[in-house]
What does this fold into?
Amino acid sequence: RKEVEQDPGPFNVPEGATVAFNCTYSNSASQSFFWYRQDCRKEPKLLMSVYSSGNEDGRFTAQLNRASQYISLLIRDSKLSDSATYLCVVANAGNNRKLIWGLGTSLAVNP
Amino acid sequence: NAGVTQTPKFRVLKTGQSMTLLCAQDMNHEYMYWYRQDPGMGLRLIHYSVGEGTTAKGEVPDGYNVSRLKKQNFLLGLESAAPSQTSVYFCASSRQGTSSYNEQFFGPGTRLTVL
It folds into this structure.
């Protein structure tokens, strides 16, 4: 089993739609969680960190469920510019400088 | 600020040739990393450095060497390139700090093809 698993998609949604991605992780001792965004043929960039209490940044909401070992990303009112691959990233205890990367979920927002 | 830069952007090598990829950051970050990204494999850590003069192995270090002689530079070397090293290589850097995590900033990548 991979340490971090994501549905690769692609998710095809119309503009204005709400879309949600889930990511599961295998190490119950994992401490830090993040969503990165990667545009086609570009480098990954941090979208948001994921906190235990859940957190929101504009149209984006991230949630963490430690009991079930998954994190989620909700995008409301999708824009064309949201089209990208969303990478789920986990940092394990005692190794916080090294990140475990999911393969990513591809999102295409259509006009 | 340029952030993290990588040279070259593209390179084609023949099997057995050697090359060095250069990463430079102007953010005064302590930590630097080299990753490779392959279809179906995700980002995998090759080597990393927690400070000038120090390096450590990551998940897939075989066939690569690194050096961090200056804080702002992190070099990745391929001594004898193999087709399996065809990949996109990303360099990243992050701050040192008391928090458990600091955001990693990535360079634009180097696309390497080994024939």
Observations:
- Residues 3 and 26 of chain B are 6 Å apart (CA to CA).
- The mean pLDDT of chain B is 93.
- The two ends of chain B are 36 Å apart (CA to CA).
- Chain B touches chain A at residues 31, 40-45, 48, 50, 58, 90, 94, 100-101, 103-104, 106-109 (CB under 8 Å).
